Amino acid sequence: MTSAFDGLKKRPAAAWTGVAVIALVLAVLPFFLAAQFGTAWVRISNLAILFILLALGLNIVVGFAGLLDLGYVAFYAVGAYAYALLASPHFDIHWPFWAILPIGAAVAALFGILLGAPTLKLRGDYLAIVTLGFGEIIRIILNNLSRPINITNGPQGISRIDPFRIGGFDFSSSQQILGLPFSGPIKYYYLLLVVLVLVIFVNLRLQNSRIGRAWEAVREDEVAARAMGIDTTRIKLLAFAMGASFGGVAGGMFAAIQGFISPESFKLVESVMVLAMVVLGGMGNIWGVILGAVLLSFVPEILRFGVDPAQRALFGRTLVEPEVIRMLIFGFALVLVMILRPGGLWPSPVRRRELASRDGEVGR
């Protein structure tokens, strides 16, 4: 798959044709889903884009810098609560979204630095345990920060969160635009696509910059990177801050789209799911991470809607709960992919070379 992608670089006409086809498919996708399957699948598509944003943010930490992070959902929660507190009746503050999202990203980046600073000397399993604990600490704080001063409203969460608005244009309401019916989810879909394109552009620029090469050096050999004059402390903190900022933006958009958030939306399983997207797609490869996020967002939902009808068609009744079978098939598929493709479905060129050299050593 990587060689095919490299081949497209040598044929720009074919590459631009492919980009045009993908853009056309993405442009008509929400209307097709709404007409054929209902608005629920447009909402699923929106959540899939949010997961892509999260996976791209985590890929900076895990894929570029090689720092295992199991508490990434904490930054997602920080961004969501930053938006909810500044755009809801909870404190009777209603700032515009374009002012809150940068604040959420900055606060999440600050929390990323707070997480990264005490863990600079940790690697591997030890770093994973600390980041896991950090994610749970944030969730527990949000769950209990309702007394003596009610800041987060505890487990009841924050409701009636303001949707995105630009002047009189409300992203949560339905209206006719150019003769086409645009529902709230469809409006958010196109906004999320614009944000996703910007995030992909930033990721590509970071990957090919001096900072991206420094992250790669730290990932491969931190001692050698330090010997070459790279300030590993600053570079690792920058990775945590940049990755966290993307999580904060995604959290703010999640809060606006849902209109309600609570600590239960930010459990450990969300961090594990995002990490699985990065690993499945291919750590360090932006396009592989996007592929992994799309698959792990849509395949479980397809199984959710398909398992029960399949059982009724085969056996006349439901023998096993659809959720159990869905997770069983899902888990088995992940294990199978990791056995057959240890570098992910679309590994980065560096990761592909590492696996090839390792297989060569084993063969000798």
- Strand count, sense and closure of the main sheet? 2 strands, antiparallel
- Cα separation of the termini: 27 Å
Helix percent reads over 70%
- Shape designation: globular
> What order do the SSEs take from the amino end to the carboxyl end, as H and E?
HHHHEEHHEEEEHHHHHHHH
Low-confidence stretches: 1-5
Portion of residues in beta strands equals under 5%
Helices and strands, with pairings:
Blueprint: H1 2-10, H2 12-36, H3 39-64, H4 73-86, E1 87-88, E2 93-94, H5 97-116, H6 124-144, E3 165-166, E4 169-170, E5 175-177, E6 180-182, H7 184-207, H8 210-220, H9 222-227, H10 232-258, H11 268-281, H12 286-315, H13 322-340, H14 349-363
Helix pairs in contact: 2-3, 3-7, 3-10, 3-11, 3-12, 4-5, 4-6, 4-10, 5-10, 8-10, 11-12, 12-13
Descriptive report:
This protein has 364 residues and is mostly helical. The chain has a single domain (2-363), classed as ABC transporter involved in vitamin B12 uptake, BtuC, CATH 1.10.3470. It is built from 14 helices and 6 strands. The protein has helices spanning 2-10, 12-36, 39-64, 73-86, 97-116, 124-144, 184-207, 210-220, 222-227, 232-258, 268-281, 286-315, 322-340, 349-363, and strands spanning 87-88, 93-94, 165-166, 169-170, 175-177, 180-182. It is globular. Mean pLDDT is 86; it is low at 1-5.
Task: Describe this structure in a few short sentences.
With 364 residues, the protein is mainly α. It has 14 helices and six strands. A two-stranded antiparallel ribbon has the order 1-2. A two-stranded antiparallel sheet has the order 3-4. A two-stranded antiparallel ribbon has the order 5-6.
